[in-house]
């Protein structure tokens, strides 16, 4: 049985990709580079293979993090053998390679006649996974690691990604502003890796005033103290704004940028729904609720208290947030599938039952004093966290397999080779079949400057 209901499969052939990109960096610098880079790519390489290669490079970078510090301690929390500085340069190269490959996959799709909704969904799935992995690695490079800043960064970046996908579902086009995650956000993370490679992770713990001494002479910054932050033990006493650590300053700046993008997405959806006769501008807001499904996992981190979390400061923190990232990728994958097939917006994912069980136990223990089953011992907690990771990975992999199978069979287009089915159902080279064999000439994979990366 297919994953996509038969009545929606025909919408794949009607799908037309639309996007807006206002990035000046893309227009004046990156796009000329991408136009040159695509000339080096053989026409026998499938666009999705290019996208997947970029993701595999990022996964390789992530595996090097696990090799040197599997417990995600960071130098600040006493990692026994922190990664050598040169490793961060490989992360920068890997992320730049990912951005480059993710940008040219759409150009390759047009060259080979393989453009279509499959590429849009495949690209979106890789982007969702990359988002979580880069948050994990960039927060490690910032020397924050096991901290509430990592949790906050995941919530912020996931919210930005979700809102952009939610916006595309309701407006019919992807909008990238003058500052977006796929372009400027990735370049900023690359810069973080380079600076960490040069000076080490402790570089980011230095106060702003050590780089800009004049900040201490500005009354607004020197006299106003940031209040103590009970959830952030490193900042348990008031601190002048001028002495805010560089890594925390970067996080604050990032949150403002994410907040701006979220507001822009909401404004675009509100404008689009108001212009549609008979549509309510408040109805799409209900579709923001599914975002909190994967987010429920973060509630487990507050036990027994936010400042004394047994999970946040344990080796289980990394597998827990990886589970969170996989569930998030599954959710946005279902949204983009609904977008290209005109299916109803997805509001539920069965994998959340595992998360809900953990949250229900947490609530029963807190309110009624019920003896916990999952958190009865550290061994049970460990089994549950890793079981959640395995289930989340399995469900997401199963979703991807079913969707790829349904789309390739219906459109007669291969996923990882440049082939299409002819009128007799025989697989041939795409150039021999023509560009309209699959009933779709839409450009569904057209680089970072025209779609999410």
UniProtKB/TrEMBL annotation:
One of its GO terms (biological process) is phospholipid biosynthetic process. This is Uncharacterized protein. Gene3D superfamilies: 1.20.120.1760. Belongs to the CDP-alcohol phosphatidyltransferase class-I family. It comes from Amanita muscaria (strain Koide BX008). It is found in: Membrane. One of its GO terms (cellular component) is membrane. Keywords: Membrane, Transferase, Transmembrane, Transmembrane helix. InterPro entries: CDP-OH_P_trans (IPR000462), CDP-OH_PTrfase_TM_dom (IPR043130), CDP_ALCOHOL_P_TRANSF_CS (IPR048254), CHOPT (IPR014472). Its main location: membrane. The chain crosses the membrane at residues 45-66, 175-196, 246-264, 285-302, 314-333, 345-364, 376-396. GO terms for molecular function: phosphotransferase activity, for other substituted phosphate groups. It comes from the Eukaryota.
């Amino acid at each position: 049985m297919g994953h996509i209901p038969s009545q929606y499969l025909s919408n794949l052939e009607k799908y037309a990709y639309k996007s807006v990109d206002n990035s000046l960096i893309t227009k004046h610098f990156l796009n000329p580079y991408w136009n040159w880079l695509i000339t080096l790519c053989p026409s026998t390489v499938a666009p999705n293979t290019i996208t997947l290669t970029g993701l595999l490079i990022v996964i390789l970078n992530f595996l090097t993090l696990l090799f040197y510090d599997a417990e995600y301690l960071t130098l600040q929390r006493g990692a026994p053998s922190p990664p050598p500085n040169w490793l961060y340069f490989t992360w920068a190269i890997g992320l730049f390679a990912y951005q480059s490959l993710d940008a040219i996959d759409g150009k390759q799709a047009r060259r080979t006649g393989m453009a279509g909704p499959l590429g849009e969904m495949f690209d979106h799935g890789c982007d969702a996974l990359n988002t979580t992995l880069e948050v994990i690695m960039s927060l490690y490079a910032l020397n924050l690691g096991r901290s509430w800043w990592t949790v906050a960064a995941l919530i912020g970046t996931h919210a930005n990604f979700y809102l952009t996908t939610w916006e595309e579902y309701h407006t019919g086009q992807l909008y990238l502003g003058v500052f977006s995650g796929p372009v400027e956000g990735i370049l900023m993370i690359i810069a973080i890796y380079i600076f960490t490679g040069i000076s080490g992770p402790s570089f980011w713990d230095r106060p702003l005033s050590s780089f800009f001494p004049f900040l201490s002479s500005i009354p607004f910054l020197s006299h106003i103290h940031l209040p103590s932050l009970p959830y952030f033990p490193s900042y348990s006493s008031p601190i002048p704004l001028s002495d805010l650590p560089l890594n925390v300053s970067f996080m604050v700046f990032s949150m403002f940028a994410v907040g701006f993008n979220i507001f822009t997405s909401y404004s675009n959806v509100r404008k689009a729904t108001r212009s549609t006769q008979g549509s309510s501008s408040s109805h799409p807001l209900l579709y923001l609720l599914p975002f909190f499904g994967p987010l429920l996992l973060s509630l487990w981190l507050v036990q027994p208290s936010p400042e004394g979390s047994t999970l946040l400061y344990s080796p289980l923190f990394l597998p827990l947030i990886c589970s969170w990232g996989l569930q998030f990728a599954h959710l946005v994958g279902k949204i983009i599938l609904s977008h290209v097939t005109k299916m109803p917006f997805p509001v539920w994912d069965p994998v959340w039952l595992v998360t809900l069980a953990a949250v229900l136990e947490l609530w029963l223990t807190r309110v009624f004093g019920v003896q916990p089953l999952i958190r009865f011992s550290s061994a049970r907690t460990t089994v549950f966290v890793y079981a959640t990771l395995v289930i989340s990975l399995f469900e997401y992999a199963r979703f991807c397999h079913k969707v790829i199978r349904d789309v390739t069979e219906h459109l007669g287009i291969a996923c990882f080779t440049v082939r299409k089915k002819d009128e007799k159902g025989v697989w041939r080279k795409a150039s021999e079949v023509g560009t309209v064999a699959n009933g779709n000439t839409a450009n569904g994979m057209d680089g970072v400057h025209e779609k999410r990366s």
